[in-house]
Amino acid sequence: MKALTVGGAMIDTIAIIGSDRIERMTMLNADNSFLLLEEGRKTEANEISTHVGGGAVNAAVAMARISLDVSTLVKLGKDQRAETVLSHLLQEGVSTRWALRDGRAPTGASVLVSSHDRNAAIFTFRGANTLLEEADLRDEAFAVDAVYVSSLSNESADTFPAIIAKAKARGALVAANPRVRQLSSRTTAFQEALARIDILAVNRSEADVLVPGLVARFRESGGTLRLEPGETPPRLLARGFSGGGHDMTLPAFFAALRQMGPRFVIVTDGRHGAFLGTRKAIHFCPAVETKVTGTAGAGDAFNATFTAYVALGLEPADAMRAAAVNAASVVGHIDTQTGLLSRDAIDKNLTAMRDKLPVRTWSH
Q: Which of 27-34's residues contact partners 24+ apart within 8 Å by CB, and which partners?
């Protein structure tokens, strides 16, 4: 099984700060929290470490450990960071044949500040990740079984339609995990590409960004999901989605996107689990209860694992369980890749945890 990942490559510097050394402010009427850094003050860290990350690299490593034959198409600078990324990919068994070097900008880098509940604040320098062009998209790179497109930075997002078209022209299973900036700045191009996407994966915030465009086409109304007497609805089912002054129920959101093309639509909600919309049903899989050391990379792990297992022929509910297991392993580590599991390890955990991961299904 051959796969290609396309998107970002980063060098992540992660600072772990004790909760007693940095103040946090939490909003009373919103879901947001803020870490407060005092100007001019030197704050002691518990640890500062450097790792390779980025959406396309995280997905490639996840798929390689699941035993797919993976290559990655990323844009790197001509610097030591690029050497570090390339060396890491080769060590993980990921082909760097399509990794490109560009002297116009350094390789991307991030600084993550992790404290309190370990949902890190991230400073991002996108660098060469913004320089992907259509001329970089070699036809032979897309001669694979599955193409996974992670977030594309700034001008690189202009290549999204061409990436999707080339992947679908080769008959690949096409998965996309766009982020807020791409969805909000290139809405029309994204919507036009949906008909060629098999798996669309977004988190709650990214789903909210899609609401205005979906409401304009399909209105806000939608069906409801019937709960068992006394059943507590998962948070997203109770909350729905909200953006641009519009609201959509979760069933309406999935129904609208289903009409636009994707066979599978994933919406992740961190420790509150994940929903999957298909043409026949809506599924909910809870998150695996685990100690959280860092949340960075959990979404990449979930989405890449789901894509790999679907490509391998598993049923969607089982692919969701596998994705939840791998994401839970990732959040047990501070970086985005140390916790990524092999297929054998995922399957072993699935056998042990099956009763703890009941997938709730509502048929259309």
A: 33/116, 33/117, 33/119
For the record, the structure tokens of 249 come out as 């129920």
- 10-residue mean pLDDT series, the chain (364 residues): 97 91 79 82 92 98 98 98 98 98 97 82 94 97 98 95 97 96 90 96 96 88 78 91 92 94 96 95 94 92 98 95 97 95 96 85 88
Alpha-carbon distance values, 121 to 21, 66, 163, 164 (Å) = 15, 29, 30, 31
Q: Cα separations (Å) of 88 from 75, 81, 301?
A: 15, 11, 17
CB within 8 Å of 64: residues ≥ 6 apart: 70, 92, 93, 94
- In whole angstroms, give the CA distance from residue 302 to residue 204: 14
| pTM for the predicted model, two decimal places | 0.94
Angle between the N-to-C axes of helices 343-353 and 316-330, in degrees from 0 to 180, rounded to the nearest 10: 100
Calculate the CA dihedral of residues 349, 117, 302, 83 and round it to 10 degrees. Answer: -110
